[in-house]
């Protein structure tokens, strides 16, 4: 299967061409860039332009961008007003977040990519039809904006009552919006399970997020290498290989102290172990 590394692994560091060069030199063919402003400040035209020049001369491919989750540079710790959510029922406030996501999408004008990965709501958010309507209105506008830039929006299953795998299908049934999906294995493990989520989402899968956890905490553990992971990777890989032409394996890992010295070596070991299953 094709291999992609999410820069979520380095999300607390500034994304530089030197970092991307190290990923390429490690033999990883493609990346997903995480839109966190301490990492990729998509508002910073100079940073985006530098990345654009580098990608034009590089063999490393930009597979996707992960939509911003916060507007600040410290993971939303400056207050709830920094949380980017398309489920905001108040239109004037929701449009602020739609505009923020559009700023990230504008990156495609300089650095082309295929997919924008989008959440519906935040972790633990409860189901509400007003929020469904809000998300539909936001996604209609964002999808048009994205398509004009050659980008497809993918909806990610996350651990809440709006966009678990089952609720993504309900969202499609209610809205007929026609968007495809990214299967997050760690989030599925916290909800209905990887196998159940895969079977619900498989017809519309276009990408993945591969990471592990204990079934409760969204720790983005290193599969096989970190203690506490509970996903059956042999079974998971059997499922993923059944439609492998539809999507790559995208590692979305969180920096772990024990692998801080050589995180790319650890990522390569994980890819090898996944392929051995």
Report on the architecture of this protein:
The protein is α/β, with parallel strands linked by helices and 277 residues long. It has a single domain (3-276), classed as Alpha-Beta Barrel (TIM Barrel), CATH 3.20.20.150. Helices cover 37% and strands 13% of the residues. The chain is built from nine helices and eight strands. The chain has an eight-stranded parallel sheet with strand order 7-6-5-4-3-2-1-8. The two termini are 12 Å apart. The mean pLDDT is 97.
How many domains make up the 3D coordinates?
A: 1
Strand order of the largest sheet: 7-6-5-4-3-2-1-8
Shape: globular
Q: What Rg, in angstroms, do the CA atoms define? A: 18 Å
- Tell me the number of helical segments per DSSP (H or I, 4 or more residues long): 9
Provide the low-confidence segments as ranges.
none
CATH class: Alpha Beta
Q: Tell me what portion of residues adopts beta-strand conformation.
A: 5-15%
- CATH topology-level name: TIM Barrel
Sketch the major β-sheet: 8 strands, parallel
Topology as a string of helices (H) and strands (E):
EHEHEHEHEHEHHEHEH
Query: How confident overall, as mean pLDDT?
Result: 97
Architecture (CATH level 2) name: Alpha-Beta Barrel
Q: What is the β-strand count?
A: 8
The termini sit apart by 12 Å
* Residues in helices, as a percent range: 25-40%
Class by SSE composition: alpha/beta
CATH superfamily: Divalent-metal-dependent TIM barrel enzymes
């Amino acid at each position: 299967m094709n291999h992609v590394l999410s820069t979520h692994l380095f999300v607390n560091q500034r994304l530089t061409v030197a970092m991307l060069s190290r990923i390429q030199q490690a033999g990883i063919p493609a990346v997903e860039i995480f839109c966190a402003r301490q990492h990729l400040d998509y508002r910073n035209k100079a940073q985006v332009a530098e990345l654009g020049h580098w990608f034009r001369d590089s063999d490393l491919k930009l597979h996707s961008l992960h939509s911003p989750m916060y507007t600040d540079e410290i993971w939303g710790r400056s207050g709830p007003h920094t949380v980017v959510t398309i489920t905001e029922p108040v239109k004037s406030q929701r449009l602020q977040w739609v505009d923020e996501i559009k700023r990230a999408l504008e990156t495609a004008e300089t650095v082309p990519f295929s997919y924008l990965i989008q959440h519906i709501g935040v972790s633990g958010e409860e189901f509400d039809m007003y929020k469904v309507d809000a998300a539909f209105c936001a996604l209609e506008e964002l999808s048009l904006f994205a398509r004009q830039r050659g980008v497809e929006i993918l909806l990610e299953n996350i651990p809440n009552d709006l966009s678990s795998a089952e609720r993504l299908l309900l969202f499609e049934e209610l809205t007929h919006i026609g968007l495809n999906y990214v299967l997050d294995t760690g989030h599925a493990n916290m909800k209905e399970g990887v196998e159940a989520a895969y079977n619900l989402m498989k017809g519309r899968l276009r990408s993945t997020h591969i990471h592990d956890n204990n079934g409760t905490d969204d720790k983005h553990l290193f599969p096989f290498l970190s203690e506490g992971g509970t996903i059956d990777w042999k079974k998971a890989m059997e499922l993923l290989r059944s439609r492998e032409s539809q999507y790559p394996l995208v590692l979305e890992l969180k920096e772990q102290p024990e692998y801080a010295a050589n995180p790319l070596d650890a990522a390569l070991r994980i890819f090898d172990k996944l392929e051995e299953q």
